[in-house]
Design goal:
The chain is an alpha+beta fold. The protein contains eleven helices and 24 strands. It has four domains: 99 residues, Immunoglobulin-like (Sandwich); 105 residues, Sandwich (Immunoglobulin-like); 31 residues; 190 residues, Toll/interleukin-1 receptor homology (TIR) domain (Rossmann fold), CATH 3.40.50. The strands form five sheets. Strands 1, 3, 4, 5, 8 and 9 form a six-stranded mixed β-sheet that branches. Strands 10, 12, 15, 16 and 17 form a five-stranded antiparallel β-sheet that branches. A five-stranded mixed β-sheet has the order 11-19-18-13-14, with no helix packed on it. The protein is elongated and about 140 Å long. Belongs to the interleukin-1 receptor family. Its main location: membrane. InterPro entries: Ig-like_dom, Ig-like_dom_sf, Ig-like_fold, IL-1_rcpt_fam, Immunoglobulin_dom, TIR_dom, Toll_tir_struct_dom_sf.
Length: 475
């Protein structure tokens, strides 16, 4: 094995602490400058090396080189110092001075740091108690804990020893301090500091209501006090909130009742102005197919309106002439000669609604087939909906098909009261319009039913005369 010897190189560095340097002008690293005054910043300890040659001093502030600028005429660099003829708050910072010493053939790079702090003049004023300012009253609840705050502003002092405390003034007896928390700084500014001092009452008592709580603040100039008096909190706010909540609840109930009572009118108004016409593009010819019992004039009571007159006269007059719907009437719109069942199914399929006028003659007669056909069509086409009108009271016969019985139980029923006028402003016609398809019917005259009651009365009279003539002919 061959071992190669490597020569060793050693350097000896001699470090000399600053406090042992043989120099009385070593300087300090902290410098406080009075705002709005003039002063200079010197490089600490630079005169300790006057026996050696050195380079000019280069200054830096917060890492940026300090240079003369036209915008800051009050700053000058002269004799390795920074001269400030007018000191601003922004002049605070960390200043670094660099220079090189030449000791024979050795160059020493020297660097010193100066922390500059801008201060204000010592205050000439006593502390300013911001809260409670003078005499202040605070509403509290007896039996609950309470924190009271004292906010004080102290002007700047170089030797700052503030004092803040809370105590209770017992009106003649000895004052006593309160349970207090450490003072904390709220805001710190150049001209002073704001403090918050908090005292705690574990439980507000009747005694506290009869006492004055005093915040005492003192500095080197003098002292100031603020007084806080406790007052029993009235229940007015709680009562106001309670009454407000009751009023809101009553308003909601009244509004809900109004909406419930006038729901039909609200829906009709919405349809009239905002709703989209659902009949456009559905390939339906009629808005509603009308199904009713076909009665013999000899069997009908001609004194009152029967379902055939209601279907052929009243419904078209109101729904077609007033509201612009198109009805499908078997006697008017279906050509004779076809198969009855096929014609009924086709007519229902071409309609958006099926209006069924229920009466004893309807549920016990052959017209019940039309209701059964309408139910079947509605099950196949969800655009078809049934509207049941209870024209007269009736009992369901046991022979009704099950699908018809179920339809009579679950489908909505609109009741026609023969004693009422058939004015379109009555509730019956509102329900009819509610169940009819949404359709743009604006532009129709508002007075189209002005003389309709007279025409209806004429229809009834003519029916009576026709029935009388038929009976005379039969005899």
């Amino acid at each position: 094995m061959i071992r190669e010897e490597i020569p060793c190189l050693s350097n000896i560095i001699k470090v000399q602490a600053k406090n042992n340097a043989n120099c009385s002008d070593n300087g300090g690293n902290e410098l406080s400058l009075l705002i709005e005054k003039g002063h200079s910043i010197s490089c600490p300890g630079i005169h300790c090396y006057n026996h050696l040659q050195r380079s000019p001093v280069t200054w830096y502030k917060n890492g940026i080189r300090v240079m003369f600028q036209e915008i800051r005429q009050s700053l000058k660099l002269k004799d390795d110092k920074i001269y400030l003829r007018y000191i601003y708050e922004q002049d605070a910072g960390i200043y670094v001075c660099d220079y090189i010493l030449f000791d024979n053939s050795i160059q020493w790079t020297m660097r010193r740091v100066v922390r500059v702090k801008i201060i204000a003049r010592n205050t000439l004023h006593i502390p300013n108690i911001l809260s409670p300012n003078g005499m202040k009253t605070l509403e509290v609840e007896v039996g609950k804990p309470l924190k009271i705050e004292c906010k004080v502003f102290f002007g700047f002092e170089s030797d700052f020893l503030p004092m803040i405390t809370w105590y209770r003034d017992n009106k003649g007896s000895k004052s006593e301090p309160l349970l207090q928390k450490p003072t904390r700084i709220r805001v710190e500014e150049l001209d002073g500091k704001s403090f918050v001092h908090v005292a705690t009452l574990r439980e507000v008592t009747e005694r506290d209501l009869n006492s004055n709580f005093i915040c005492f603040a003192q500095n080197s100039v003098g002292n100031a006090t603020g007084v806080l008096k406790l007052k029993r909190k009235e229940r007015a706010l709680f009562i106001f909130i309670l009454y407000g909540a009751i009023a809101v609840l009553v308003g909601l109930l009244v509004g809900s009742a109004f909406v419930y009572q006038h729901w039909i009118e609200i829906v009709l108004m919405y349809r009239n102005y905002l709703a989209k016409d659902e009949t456009i593009g559905d390939c339906k010819e009629f808005d509603a197919f009308v199904s009713h019992a076909k009665q013999d004039s000899f069997e009908s009571d001609s004194t009152f309106l029967n379902e055939e007159q209601f279907a052929l006269e009243v419904l078209p007059e109101v729904l077609e002439n007033k509201y612009g719907y198109k009805l499908c009437l078997l006697e008017r719109d279906i050509l004779p000669g076809g198969a009855y069942t096929d014609d009924i199914v086709t007519a229902i399929q071409q309609s958006r609604r099926a209006i069924i006028i229920l009466s004893p003659g309807y549920v016990n007669g052959p017209s019940i087939f039309e209701l059964q056909a309408a139910v079947n069509c509605a099950l196949e086409d969800n655009m078809i909906k049934l509207i049941l009108i209870k024209f007269k009271s009736f009992q369901e016969p046991e022979s009704l098909p099950p699908i018809v019985k179920k339809a009579l139980k679950i489908l909505p029923v609109v009741t026609w009261k023969s004693s009422n006028s058939n004015s379109p402003n009555k509730q019956f016609w509102k329900y009819m319009r509610y169940h009819m398809p949404v359709k743009n019917t604006r532009g129709l005259g508002k007075n189209s039913l002005k003389f309709f009651p007279h025409r209806l009365f004429s229809v009834v009279i003519n029916s009576r005369k026709a029935a009388g003539r038929s009976q005379q002919t039969k005899k």
